[in-house]
Design brief:
Elements (H helix, E strand, L loop, with lengths): L1 E5 L2 E5 L1 H13 L4 E7 L6 E3 L9 E5 L5 E10 L4 H20 L3 E12 L1
Parallel strand pairs: 6-7
Antiparallel strand pairs: 1-2, 3-4, 3-6, 5-6
Amino acid sequence: MIEINNSKGNISISNDVFIALAGDAATNCFGVKGMALRSRTDGLVHLLRRESMGKGVHVTFDENGSVNIELHIIVENGVNIPVICDSIIGEVRYKVSAATGVPIGSVNVFVDSMTV
């Protein structure tokens, strides 16, 4: 959770807000099939449904007040992975920062799988 203090009062933004914003921004990018979760039991990568996509997003906070976001995604077959990742990074940075006003430290994208 992050706290923002101003002259009118305090604002608390929970991790779930950042997770929902980042997950939504990433899955709306072209070529992204969905968020991914690697199973601890069998090691396979699973495509997450829309309602549980938060499991593919990890958010950490720095002491300087910025947010670091880690995304695990599944992309469609035949897409240019570096271009998609750059697009996702830009989109997530813009959407999360615009919605919350919190500076974004880093956005890391991990392509866990590719589907047809």
